[in-house]
Recover the amino acids of this structure.
């Protein structure tokens, strides 16, 4: 072979295997969506330092270009995010090799500088070998990347397919979508991992269907509305910080002026007062600033989502569908884990103290009135519960059910042993099953889980959504099974004196001891377990280990048969014998009691304030909580 050219010998100056954070050779290099690469430990430390003071962080800015990087998963702790960010295999190989020599030539005991990287072979190739590689029938379709582009992000964007567009398990191109699991698949995934799944569609067909059904436009609209809320909340937070400054300045000015009149006695006391004021101001400004930072991140994330969803025509189908699914899942999580807005009032009663200064030994404490509101929410302490419609055909004894992802409603009617399917609030299907159904939750786009029992024998069955047929029994028990809840792939089942936590195969992985006659269970966005007992008439909030955190009891709450939790963590409890709905804060403090006749269960629609209330004797009704308007 010919000697290497001068340009080939200069590749060392064009390529770097040095981490831009620690300035040492890469150790387990991780590549971000913006294609900047960092050591695993360096990136992990950076993420932790960036997110540690933020409420429910949703991502972080790239250390180099500051482009906002969405969290790789919302179901794991921030400490584990880095483990889910892909390894940059090219840089990893170069770092381990320690040279930039052509691998094919090295096998022939020749040392020629490489010019390209073959993704398919994971090898470096010189210019001559690249020519033969392209001519060979075996390797003519391999993806070759010029080495000189490794440090040029704009060129990488053109020439390197992002690892996020590939199958995470095999690093192959995505060809299919498993509808049952909503999981992108390469050919190997489809034929192995998903070979028993009922519906696997080609990725181009899925992309076209999403376009035709207007899914991108619908999600864009939701994100735009949420973005508007973020902008408004950010502005309110900044106004609040200015209010804190202005009000504290007023307090400081008035305090100082009054001090001058009685300076001989007040100096020491005023010093303490101002110190306390400064501490209070700092604490409150820090609190508001944290929320503003969290909102800013969400704003950046929404802007990024919108940009992705608007560029659908030029985006390859595999990336398009993947981005859509990823954005939709992340958007649902972001809206559930949104930070709270603060309403803050800062004031001091120092003037009253100063008029009695000769008897005062310490100024009164500076107090801050703070009211926390959900970012997308309404103040349920002064909202109204407006009737939308009645669901005809379900005359009493509805013990549970759920809203499906498409807005349909499925009810469990215990007495008739039927599942009732409503579309646009009209009954479209009524299916009789073998046992008495108690509750329904949607497990995947194609399947629901139904709890049912008869004669003290209970089970949880997986039902096909299209045929409403039981295709698999997830759980069998020698006692009754009541309410169900889903969280992070686990199923929670209320069984009177126990709440069972099941994995995807129906194995019991944890048991929570609860009061007798516990018929309901819900899981909030902090993975806390919420239940109510019809024996003690209490509502209990436990952490995921089973430790009791909060307890709610009220003289106007009797026989709380059903409950649910919304995207903000607020708890809705149906008092069947007290004829009311109790709405509680996430820490089980009362917000408001709504009068409803004989409510047996209440189920909320995701990311909204719509719900249906099932009854022991009456027709199931659909309601929506609305902001109270003064007339």
């Amino acid at each position: 072979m010919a000697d290497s050219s001068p340009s080939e010998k200069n590749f060392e100056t064009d390529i770097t295997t040095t981490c831009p954070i620690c300035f040492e050779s890469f150790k387990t290099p991780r590549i971000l969506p913006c294609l900047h690469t960092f050591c695993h430990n360096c990136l992990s430390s950076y993420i932790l330092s960036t997110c540690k003071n933020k409420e429910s962080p949703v991502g972080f800015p790239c250390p180099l270009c500051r482009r906002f990087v969405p969290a790789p998963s919302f179901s794991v702790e921030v400490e584990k995010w880095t483990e889910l960010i892909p390894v940059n295999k090219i840089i990893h190989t170069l770092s381990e090799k320690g040279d930039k020599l052509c691998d094919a030539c090295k096998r022939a005991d020749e040392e020629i500088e490489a010019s390209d990287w073959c993704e398919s072979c994971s090898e470096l190739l010189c210019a001559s070998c690249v020519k033969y590689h392209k001519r060979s029938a075996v390797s003519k379709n391999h993806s070759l990347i010029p080495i000189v582009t490794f440090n040029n992000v704009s060129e990488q964007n053109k020439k390197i397919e992002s690892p996020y567009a590939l199958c995470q398990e095999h690093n192959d191109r995505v060809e299919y979508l498993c509808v049952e699991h909503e999981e992108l698949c390469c050919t190997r995934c489809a034929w192995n991992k998903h070979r028993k799944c009922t519906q696997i569609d080609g990725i181009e067909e899925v992309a076209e269907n999403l376009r035709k059904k207007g899914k991108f436009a619908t999600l864009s609209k939701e994100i735009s509305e949420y973005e508007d809320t973020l902008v408004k909340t950010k502005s309110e937070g900044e106004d609040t910080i200015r209010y804190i400054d202005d009000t504290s300045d007023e307090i400081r000015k008035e305090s100082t002026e009054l001090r001058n009149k009685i300076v001989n006695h007040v100096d020491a006391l005023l010093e303490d007062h101002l110190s306390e004021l400064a501490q209070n101001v700092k604490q409150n400004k820090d609190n508001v600033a944290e929320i503003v930072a969290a909102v800013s991140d969400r704003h950046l994330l929404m802007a990024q989502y919108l940009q992705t969803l608007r560029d659908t025509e030029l985006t390859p189908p595999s990336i398009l569908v993947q981005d859509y699914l990823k954005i939709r899942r992340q958007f649902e999580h972001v809206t559930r884990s949104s930070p709270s807005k603060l309403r803050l009032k800062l004031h001091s009663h120092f003037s009253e103290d100063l008029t009695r200064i000769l008897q005062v030994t310490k100024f009164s404490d500076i107090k801050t009135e703070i009211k926390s509101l959900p970012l997308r929410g309404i103040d349920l302490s002064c909202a109204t519960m407006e009737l939308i419609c009645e669901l005809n055909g379900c005359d009493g004894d509805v013990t549970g059910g759920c809203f499906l992802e498409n807005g349909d409603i499925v009810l469990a009617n215990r007495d008739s042993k039927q599942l009732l399917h409503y579309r646009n609030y009209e009954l479209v299907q009524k299916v009789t099953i073998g046992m008495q159904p108690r509750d329904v939750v949607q497990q995947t786009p194609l399947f629901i889980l139904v709890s049912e029992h008869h004669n003290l024998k209970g089970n949880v069955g997986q039902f096909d959504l299209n045929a409403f047929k039981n295709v698999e029994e997830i759980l069998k028990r020698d006692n009754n099974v009541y309410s169900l809840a889903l969280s992070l792939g686990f199923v929670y089942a209320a069984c009177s004196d126990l709440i069972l936590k099941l994995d995807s195969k129906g194995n019991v992985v944890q048991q929570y001891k609860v009061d007798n006659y516990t018929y309901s269970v819900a899981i909030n966005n902090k993975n806390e377990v919420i239940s109510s007992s019809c024996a003690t008439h209490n509502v209990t909030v436990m952490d995921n280990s089973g430790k009791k955190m909060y307890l709610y009891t009220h003289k106007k709450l009797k026989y709380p048969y059903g409950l649910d939790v919304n995207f903000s963590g607020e708890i809705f409890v149906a008092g069947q014998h007290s004829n009311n709905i109790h709405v509680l804060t996430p820490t089980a403090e009362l917000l408001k009691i709504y009068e409803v006749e004989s409510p047996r269960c209440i189920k909320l629609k995701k990311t909204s304030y719509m719900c249906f209330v099932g009854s022991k004797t009456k027709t199931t009704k659909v309601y929506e909580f609305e902001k109270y308007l003064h007339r």
Q: What stands out?
A: Residues 263-310 form the longest helix (48 residues). Residues 429 and 598 are 25 Å apart (CA to CA). The radius of gyration is 30 Å.
